[in-house]
Amino acid sequence: MPLDRRSVSESTASRLSLYLRSLAVLEAEGVAHVSSQALARRFDLNSSQIRKDLATFGEFGLRGVGYGVAALRRHLVTILGLDETRRVAIVGAGRLGMALADYPGFGSGGFAITAVFDDDPARISTRTRSGVVVTDVSHLPALVAELGIEIAVLAVPARAASDAGRLCWESGIQAILNFTAARLPAPPNVHVKNVDLRVRLETLSFYIGGAFPLPGKEEPWPRGRSRSLHRRT
Amino acid sequence: MPLDRRSVSESTASRLSLYLRSLAVLEAEGVAHVSSQALARRFDLNSSQIRKDLATFGEFGLRGVGYGVAALRRHLVTILGLDETRRVAIVGAGRLGMALADYPGFGSGGFAITAVFDDDPARISTRTRSGVVVTDVSHLPALVAELGIEIAVLAVPARAASDAGRLCWESGIQAILNFTAARLPAPPNVHVKNVDLRVRLETLSFYIGGAFPLPGKEEPWPRGRSRSLHRRT
DNA sequence: CCGTGTGAAGCTGTTCACAGCT
DNA sequence: AGCTGTGAACAGCTTCACACGG
Predict the structure, then answer these.
(1) Which residue has the higher pLDDT, B210 or B192?
(2) Beta-strand (E) ranges in chain B?
(3) Is pLDDT above 60 for A219?
(4) Least CB–CB distance from B105: residue in A191, A198, A222
(5) Using CB atoms within 10 A as the burial measure, which of A33, A89, B70, B222 is most buried?
């Protein structure tokens, strides 16, 4: 019975990534088994959350014992598709794009920055610190096909975003990490994740403010429950 | 009646930021009024979502007409706390930190990058492109107090994250945008938003894969790269 | 009429609680 | 005994549908 990945929620998928990181640490420490409760403590999560997340993909645990650290880590690597190197292109060789091209998390552990593109002649042929040559974006379709690039990191100015995005999916790129402010009209088979830094900062700004005076409205107090940070394991 | 901001969900808060961006465009275009439905079309959202979000903070609409663009924009600016400039510090002057220090969205429209800190002597006294001097992190507490810095952008190596984070909140910083892989044990009055780029990329990788064969026991399943086009119902 | 504001319904993700395996 | 795996209960966010005001 196959499982459509689209039926897995994004929150579950990103927790898998967190679990993987913890398991790598535990494996390096030589820990053999870990219980959902022990893992939960590391993330301030509920332990049944972890068991449910993992149970989506199979029965990896041993009742009375917990999960085998090494085996579970291997399973998560496979589930996340990191057992073969995924090729990543950076589109936009400005400051952010170049910083991301050298970001350690992007060029290791299942990912390789395989190309960097820009349309500014002044940037073409420069190199990232790790030596990847900035290529004219007109070569993107050919290089995506030739090198088997599956993921694009979009770090172009907002006005160029939808053109650059379209070029990506028309070239066969399957997923886009979008650092621009634009929302991309991508076809449904292309997965887009927006990392809108401005929105993140404004959201933080919102929560800094004090109690908000509602003009002319009578509302019961307190409104809603305060979010408890305490979770049971 | 006052409204505790913590009772507002993060999804609502970040949508406010999106609405604000759209309203700025509409205002520049000279549009006087906009309906929740017209706004919704821009975001692929349900219109009652927008009405509910806005109604949390007051009655800004005119029945039969919609929302006044200029007035609603001003309200959102106030709600998000962007009517006075918020001072932001970058902690960590590596490539990512320096790129973020010059990121246009961080230094405008209600935010100002007021300081950049690092502990590497080789980086102290260098400047961002916009001219902010990199300062030794030992001066962070004094400068946070002196300059009224409220938000920190944490872009240090993972191993330095919790020390740097603690320094931030002990110095009076109220919100942290955390680009490190570490999870910060911040006190409850400090708002932390994790922007874990590695997790984002691994999550994308997860969704690229084809249908997932739920394993019988220990058969190695091949990584499918074919894509199902049908949406879940 | 039209579009907002809002209770009610619906849905999705989280937590509980326990049966069952080791 | 200890811990997983899972149906059931729960909570919170989203959508519906309509009363009400312009």
Answers:
(1) B192
(2) 2-3, 33-34, 61-62, 66-68, 86-91, 111-118, 134-136, 149-154, 175-178, 191-194, 212-213
(3) no
(4) A198
(5) A89
What is the per-residue pLDDT across A131-151, written as a single tens digit (0 to 9) for each? 999 999 999 999 999 999 999
Sheet bearing A61-62, strands edge to edge: A33-34, A66-68, A61-62
Which residue's CA is nearest to the C1' of nucleotide C21? A63
Q: Which residue of A95, A175, A206 is in closest CB contact with B13?
A: A206
Q: Pull the structure tokens for residue A88.
A: 């990543």
SS3 A50: helix
B62 neighbors B51 (Cβ within 8 angstroms): no
- Separation CA A226–CA A203 (nearest Å): 18
User: Are residues A43 and A16 in contact, defined by beta-carbon separation less than 8 angstroms?
Assistant: no
Minimal CA–CA distance to A91: which of A190, A157, A31? A157
3-state SS, B177-189, equals EECCCCCCCCCCC
For residue A95, give the 3-state DSSP assignment. Answer: helix
B214·A57 Cβ contact <8 A: yes
Nucleotides of chain D in contact with protein CB (under 7 A) are 1-7, 12-17, 20-22
Q: What is the mean pLDDT of residues B204-226?
A: 62
Nearest-10 Cα torsion for B109, A180, A97, B122: 30
C-beta of residue B91 within 8 angstroms of C-beta of residue B155: yes
- Residue A230 — very low, low, confident or very high, per pLDDT cuts 50/70/90? very low
Between CA B113 and CA A129 the distance in angstroms is 26
Question: Distance (Å) from CA B165 to C1' C6?
Answer: 42
User: How many contacts, defined by CB atoms under 8 Å, are there between A and B?
Assistant: 257
Q: What is the mean pLDDT of chain B?
A: 91
Nearest CB neighbour to A81, from listed B5, B103, B208: B208
Q: Residue B215 pLDDT > 80, yes or no? A: no
A65 touches strand D (CB under 7 A): yes
Mean pLDDT of chain A: 91
Residue of B154, B151, B207, B204 whose CA lies nearest to B181: B154
**Of all protein residues, which has its CA closest to the C1' atom of C6?**
B52
